[in-house]
Amino acid sequence: MWTDLHERRPGQLWAFMPEPEVQLLAETLVAFANSDGGTILIGVDETGQATGQVYADEVEVALQAAVRECRPPVEVRWHQAAAEEGLAFAIVVPRSPELHSLADGRVLVRTGAENRPLSGDQIRQLAATKSTG
Questions:
Q1: The pTM is what?
Q2: Is 12 helix (H, G, I), strand (E, B) or coil?
Q3: Domains of the chain
Q4: Which of 57, 59, 63, 107 has its C-alpha lying 20 to 30 A from 80's C-alpha?
Q5: Residue 27: how many CA atoms within 13 Å on its side-chain side?
Q6: Cβ atoms within 10 A of the Cβ of 52, count?
Q7: Got the DSSP string for 20-48?
Q8: Could you give the count of Cα atoms lying within 13 Å of 28 in the half-sphere of its Cβ?
């Protein structure tokens, strides 16, 4: 049981989504994979409270659609987690050795609690870092 959800806040390693939104989920998958990795909590609002209004099948459908928007696909693990206020789902995104983009070509990284798009020069710098480890 995650009793400390209300103590967490969105940031460099955490993203909270009350509902699974495919585009935001895809952006966050890419940003976490291109940065230090992180965990997306679905069914949790920005204050860390579980909304209790999310179901596993809708999370799975949204996650599959979001992964299809990532180039190359982002590796993830996800599981259901019991919270004091109801169910939440954790999507764990490891840091990737590859450079990931969205289907529309945007490359994002996680900066604090934001998914930030990179410019051409920044993309080249990130790609060089990824290829050298």
A1: 0.92
A2: coil
A3: 5-132 (3.30.950.30)
A4: 107
A5: 16
A6: 11
A7: --HHHHHHHHHHHHHTT-EEEEETB-TTS
A8: 28
Q: How far apart are CA 32 and CA 111, in angstroms?
A: 9
SS (H, E, C) 48-90: CCECCCCCHHHHHHHHHHHHHCEECCCCCEEEEEEECCEEEEE
Q: What is the dihedral of CA 29, 30, 35, 39, to 10 degrees?
A: 0
Closest CA to 28 of 128, 117, 120: 117
Q: SS3 for 130? A: helix
